[in-house]
Amino acid sequence: MTLALVPSVSGSGREMLDCSELDTVERFDAWTDAVSRSFVPLTADLPDGFTPAGFDGALVSQQLGSAEISTVTGSAVSVRRTQRQIARADPGFIKLGLQLRGYSVITQDGRDAALAPGDFAIYDTRRPYQLDFDDSFRMFVVMFPLKSLSLNHRQLSSLTASRFSGRRGLGAITSSFLGEMSRQLDSDSLGRGFQVSDAIFELVAATLGERLDEATSGDENAQRRLLLARIDQHIVSHLGDSRLSVTGIAAAHHISVRYLQKLFEEQEETVRGRIRHRRLEEARRDLLNPSLAQRPIAAIGASWGFDDAASFARAFRKEFGVSPRECRVTAHN
Questions:
Q1: Phi and psi (nearest 5°) for 324?
Q2: Please, is 287 exposed, middle or buried when counting C-beta atoms within 10 Å of its C-beta (0-12, 13-18, 19+)?
Q3: With 166 labelled, which of 115, 157, 320, 331 sits at a CA distance of 20 to 30 A?
Q4: CB 60 within 8 A of CB 14
Q5: Which DSSP string do the residues of 118-153 spell out, in sequence order?
Q6: What are the residues whose beta carbons fall under 8 Å from the beta carbon of 151, sequence distance 6 or more?
Q7: Separation between Cα atoms, residue 207 and residue 203, nearest integer Å
Q8: CA–CA separation, 164 vs 144, rounded Å?
Q9: How far is Cα 151 from Cα 31, in angstroms, rounded to an integer?
Q10: Residue 5 gets which letter from DSSP?
């Protein structure tokens, strides 16, 4: 059967399917169809001894910029992308799967990545792959265009179906960030203005780069990427604090202000510019969120570190070309 994902009533672009609301005979086919259309065409098979009537699952999905984020749950199942399906439609996407509950094995390019909760792996939709779940599971999936990562074919092929631990290094930071995104998606709190690309792509690129650097003994580069990711996580965690400063960030990471500034100069950015950009993006997200339509604009600015309403309005217009009020009116009309 074919069953469309149901749009969320919030109007945020979030779509979902809850198989528990369907007859048992419809659930497996509905879930398979929804997963295939949310990602790329796939084939789903039940393990021996399991029947469609015993299957249960759900899918929550949202398009954010060039990325598609989804939280997928299900009973024991095997999902695979075949060469025939690739020949019919080859969009050229990378998928990152973060295990949230249960266990899985991702197979591609002759490798198997066995994932426990908190672990993740990437896989390429242009080549066959398979995901095996032996029991009920929950996984957060980010799908984004291949061009989002500056990796050549050899580099990418060396990384697919490789387990990234969610308990150490950049993997732990990435796992924590994506896990929080999944929780927000479940509560329908991700507004249409949330710019996922910068945060996710920077973290993923840094994590993959760390693995490549380890393979080529690039210790110094890996440490710098790890430090930058930690600094960025610190900034994100303290955006609402108007006292967030360059000096405070440097002290929190036991480095000099000059070294901190140098790290950002290498990214062709400034520390203050990063803070301002992140704050404005979060404020824009809130202005676009229908559930916050009655909250005063000045209060939204203050919640993201802008103590002065006039300076918030000026910074917002400079960043987006419209005032905060115009942004809100356009979104809600």
A1: -55, -40
A2: buried
A3: 157
A4: yes
A5: T-EEEEETTS-EEEEESS-EEEEEEEEEGGGS---H
A6: 159, 208
A7: 6
A8: 18
A9: 33
A10: P
Q: How far apart are CA 117 and CA 139, in angstroms?
A: 9
Q: Inter-axis angle of helices 169-186 and 219-237, to 10 degrees?
A: 30
Distance separating alpha carbons of residues 248 and 67, to the nearest angstrom: 33
CA distance 301 to 8: 27
- Determine if residue 109 is left, alpha or beta; phi over 0 gives left, psi from -120 to 50 gives alpha, anything else beta: left
Residue labelled with tokens 């209060």: 299
- Residue 317, class by beta-carbon neighbours within 10 Å (0-12 exposed, 13-18 middle, 19+ buried)? middle
Question: Of the candidates 64, 62, 121, which has an alpha carbon nearest to the alpha carbon of residue 97?
Answer: 121
Give the pTM: 0.65
For the chain, list the domains and their CATH numbers.
Answer: 6-167 (2.60.120.10)
Q: Which of 161, 155, 171, 282 has its CA nearest to residue 213?
A: 155
For 2, 60, 278, the CA distances from 162, given in Å and listed in that order, are 34, 25, 31
pLDDT profile of the chain (333 residues), mean per 10: 36 75 88 90 89 88 84 94 88 92 94 94 94 94 82 81 89 90 78 55 79 61 73 84 91 88 87 92 87 89 92 92 89 62
Question: Among the residues of 49-95, which ranges form H helices?
Answer: 83-88
The amino acid occupying position 97 is G
30 token code pair: 């509905």
| SS3 at position 120 | strand
Give the chain's length. Answer: 333
The DSSP symbol for 53 reads G
- CA terminus-to-terminus distance, the chain: 36
d(CA 106, CA 122): 9
H or E element at residue 95: strand 93-101
Contact 246, 285 (CB under 8 A): no
Separation of alpha carbons 141 and 182, rounded Å = 9
326 and 301 Cβ atoms separated by less than 8 Å? no
